[in-house]
């Protein structure tokens, strides 16, 4: 590992402990950790690959979306208007998995570990997830001739912010669009902003920045 990368990672760790990091810092960290990811379904490498190539046509998310797309096409007529029989759409990215992988990389490359408590109980972990949402919410995936866009929305828990993949499946002149929650964050949407986020509000992306008081929004 180069001295520059070492010091960048240490700089982020200090910012994390002090709750002073923002979306740009998370971007740099993920790109620095990208080459140290060794597991087959690395969440960190997948996210970093999106940052390097915002319009993707391969990778973990692509493979899962492509699999569902290919399962539905031959059953399109059967499933049209019958959502209860659609294939299960599991969450792809999980906060706890991302943090465990990050600490595993820190340990493997000889960096100090940073204490990450359960996401809902640690404001810094919530803020880290918001940064990931901000980085991914404009990404796109090419599935066949269709473009699957990633967007923000409300998750399965009350007011939590989530990342969705809108997967269009076209057969003849009909289009079925699956709204797939691929990442559920523990960040909560303020009650006054609910209508702007869900179900078809005007908030399509966020940028996680610090205000003068140090709070992230």
What features would you describe in this structure?
- The chain is α+β, with helices and mostly antiparallel strands and 217 residues long.
- It has one domain (3-197).
- It is built from 8 helices and 5 strands, in the order αααβααααββββα.
- The chain has helices spanning 3-18, 23-33, 43-52, 60-72, 76-79, 95-108, 123-136, 194-197, and strands spanning 55-56, 140-143, 146-154, 160-171, 174-188.
- A 5-stranded mixed sheet has the order 1-2-3-4-5.
- A hairpin with a 2-residue loop joins strand 4 (160-171) and strand 5 (174-188).
- The longest helix has 16 residues, at 3-18.
- The chain starts with a helix and ends in a 20-residue tail after the last helix.
- The mean pLDDT is 83.
SSE order: HHHEHHHHEEEEH
- Give the number of helices: 8
The share of residues in extended strands comes to 15-25%
Helix content: 25-40%
Q: What structural class do helix, strand and pairing data support?
A: alpha+beta
Tell me the span between the first and last alpha carbons: 33 Å
| Strand arrangement, major sheet | 1-2-3-4-5
Largest sheet: 5 strands, mixed
Number of domains: 1
Total beta strand runs: 5
**Poorly predicted runs of 5 or more residues:** none
